[in-house]
Amino acid sequence: MEKNGLIPINKPTVPDLKCILEEYQEVFDNGMLTNHKYVGMFEERLKEYLGVRNVVCVSCCTSGLMLVAKCLGLTGEVIVPSFTFPATVHSLIWNNLTPVFIDCNPETFNLDVDEIEKKITKRTSAILGVYIFGNPPEMDKLENLVHKHQINLIFDSAHALGSQFKGKFAGNFGDAEVFSLAPTKIITSGEGGIVTTNNDDLAKKLKLARNYGNPGNYDCCLLGLNARMNELSAIMGLKSMDLLEDSIARRHNLVNLYKTELGKIEGINFQRIRKGNRSTFNYFSILIDSEKFGMDNKELHLALEKKGIMTRVYFYPPVHRQKVYKKYYYRYKNSLSWTDKIADSILCLPLYSDMGEERVLRVCEAIKDSP
Ligand SMILES: Cc1ncc(COP(=O)(O)O)c(C=O)c1O
Questions:
Q1: pTM, entire model
Q2: CATH of 17-103+111-240, one of 3.40.190.150, 2.40.50.100, 3.50.30.30, 3.40.640.10
Q3: Which positions ≥6 away from 259 have C-beta within 8 Å?
Q4: How far is 169 from 163, CA to CA, in rounded Å?
């Protein structure tokens, strides 16, 4: 039971502390606190799970995205959705790249692939796609596009550890994908990120880049960061791998229950996951048609909060509406209408791996009683 009967929106999925501490004692004893044995073991485990050639663990998804853009040598403009978390786009700005915002698909909330070609110019060097809430984008269309225009394709896969596109694990698409292991993610290492790539040269560069670009003699050969993962995070990540598939299965059951209960209410719709794909459901969102439902997303958020149920209007504001992005949006005013509409009608409901079904039912009852 959560404190005071409150239902949080999210709760980290964590392994047994005792087994983490046993391994960490060894790390303490040998003094190798960062980027060492357990990071290597975690990378091996992830390679095996995802079926990808290279895994490079980093300090977080944001640093991973920054380093991927740097190591691929991206230039000019990068096509990116605005309906995403700000760090997706921040990673481009930190590399002096210009984000070219693309609208989202109103059903899947992922970038609208059919709109991309209109925005490709001579200056475009890449597309940065995002698995919104764990939902895989249209990989086949994206791969055809980048092949045709000879540009790079990378993914912010922060929500997608365990997602699958047509049976293939996220982590195997484009030039590289970057996952997050922050506490709100499907599994966590406290903080952390995972870069996957089937490009061996890129993986080599990333391994240098996460350590300042230092090949070992401090004669740095590229401009890196300190983006190392520490051993405690790696141990937590490794142990959490045992929880991952079960977490996804539990979330699927809870989402099915939500859909059964809320599907009966007029004015509530769900994110579309295309047939044959698997989402992690890192978040479960509903779209509210305020006229049919009787209140809008922000009003429902407040009504549920009064009943001890935490929800989040998310992603809001969309990136192009955020203060820091004003200067990058001037060229595309009024062309992100779906992004604005989705951001104005979305609400993420409580979902975490060990959430009980009775809690889902309590949330559904509270929603039914709200307008
Ligand atoms: C889509 C997306 N990208 C990137 C990030 C940033 O991840 P990190 O905190 O690991 O840098 C988040 C964090 O929530 C996210 O939701």
A1: 0.97
A2: 3.40.640.10
A3: 270
A4: 6
Number of Cβ within a 10 Å radius of residue 226: 13
Two tokens, residue 130: 């995002």
Q: Cα(158) to centroid of ligand 1, in Å?
A: 5
Which residues line ligand 1 at a C-beta cut-off of 6 Å?
Answer: 60-62, 84-85, 87-88, 130, 156, 158-159, 180, 182, 193
Closest CA relative to residue 77, chosen from 62, 95, 64, 65:
95
Q: pLDDT tens for residues 303-344?
A: 999 999 999 999 999 999 999 988 876 565 558 999 999 999
C-alpha 129 to ligand 1 mean position (Å): 13
C-alpha to C-alpha distances, 194 to 180, 187, 216, 237, 265, nearest whole angstrom = 7, 12, 22, 10, 39
Per domain, the residue ranges of the chain are 17-103+111-240, 241-368
Which helix (H) or strand (E) is 302 found in, with range?
A: helix 297-306
Secondary structure class of 68 (helix, strand, coil): helix
| Sequential DSSP letters for 309-333 | B--B--S-S-GGGSGGGHHHHGGGT
The residue with tokens 């405690």 is 232
What is the atom index within ligand 1 of the atom nearest the CA of 63? 11
122-171: pLDDT as tens digits: 999 999 999 999 999 999 999 999 999 999 999 999 999 999 999 999 99
Query: Phi, psi (5° rounding) for residue 119?
Result: -100, 0
Which tokens sit at 199? 């490009």
